[in-house]
Model the fold of this input.
Amino acid sequence: MTPLAEYLLVAALLFAIGLAGALTRRNAILVLIGIELMLNAANLNLVAFWRYGAHPELLTGMMFAIFSIAVAAAEAAVGLGLVIAIYRHARTTDLDEINRMKG
Amino acid sequence: MNVVFWILAVITVLGGLMAVTLKNTVHCALALTVAFAGLALLFLQLDAQFAGFAQVLVYIGAVAILVVFAILLTRGSETPSEGVLSHTWFAGLLIAAAVFAVLAWAVLKSTAVLQHETAAPSVSVQQIGSALMGRYVLPLEIVALLLTAAMLGAVMVALHEKGEQK
Done:
């Protein structure tokens, strides 16, 4: 295997782990943790393609990863704010119990 | 065979695995920090120093702390008696396994990954700074606006509701 394929496989495994976490856990915060893992796996792909790609001096992949980190930070802040708001309203973060759109 | 890469990969994947499987939510957050640190080291291994340090600052420094705060504010650290898995857990696991199988198959079959080791690109922070201020200035401004809006939005959403007793 080439180094690029190794990095891509690790990223794919991390993405699958994050997806499994987001789909199987009951706690809303654990679902957000799974989403963060998936975003990070995508970042690893971007940086690996940048490193082993055709024109690393153009910085394209790394810039994409840096912007993606910034967007993920915004996502985490809003997501956890929503979880706290839902907890204050419904007194639970259990996603199986939160089954009404109307408060 | 790169030994350092494999050690870092094992640390990262184990951290991620523990982050989604442990019962105690606080332990999950700590395992998540390990996974983030492993990813930052993988970025350094890929000669992307700036991205690695940004990863340490943003994820370990901010997102992990935010997750711990949210867990403690919502009393999420108590393990529920009826288990931690949702009732559709089997379908979720199946979907994740299928996604991994497709991704791994695509990576192993692809001819795009066949290129060999290239020389390590030397990227200085100065180059990144001038790229951010030149070619990428519009995305930079948009991200700045997005972060401001997200911060205000998070505060607004998490504010106390009107007429709510404490």
Q: What stands out?
A: Residues 123-166 of chain B form one domain. Chain B has two domains: 1-78, 123-166. The CA atoms of residues 104 and 110 of chain B lie 10 Å apart.
